[in-house]
Amino acid sequence: MAKAKASYVCTDCGSEYSRWLGQCTDCKAWNTISEFRQAKLPARGGNFAGFAWCSASK
Predict the structure, then answer these.
(1) Could you tell me which of 44, 20, 45 has the C-alpha nearest to residue 32?
(2) pLDDT tens by residue, 24-36
(3) 15 Cβ partners below 8 Å, 6+ apart?
(4) Are 32 and 47 in contact (CB under 8 A)?
(5) 3-state per-residue secondary structure call for the chain
(6) Can you tell me whether residue 48 is helix, strand or coil?
(7) Per DSSP, what are the bridge partners of residue 5?
(8) Residue of 12, 2, 51 lying closest to 33 (CA atoms)
């Protein structure tokens, strides 16, 4: 199973980063970057792709 993607967000201004920083580069606040894990969503379609009864149009 793949790892959940981590993103880092400043709790003061909401700026997002791909890695942790000690200081936010936008609002200049120190120690406000927090890690958030984004759950991986399953692929659309799944096991029901191709079944006629799953069609939304009527």
Answers:
(1) 20
(2) 999 999 999 999 8
(3) 9, 24, 25, 26, 27
(4) no
(5) CCCCEEEEEECCCCCEECCCCCECCCCCCECCEEEEEECCCCCCCHHHCCCHHHCCCC
(6) helix
(7) 38
(8) 12
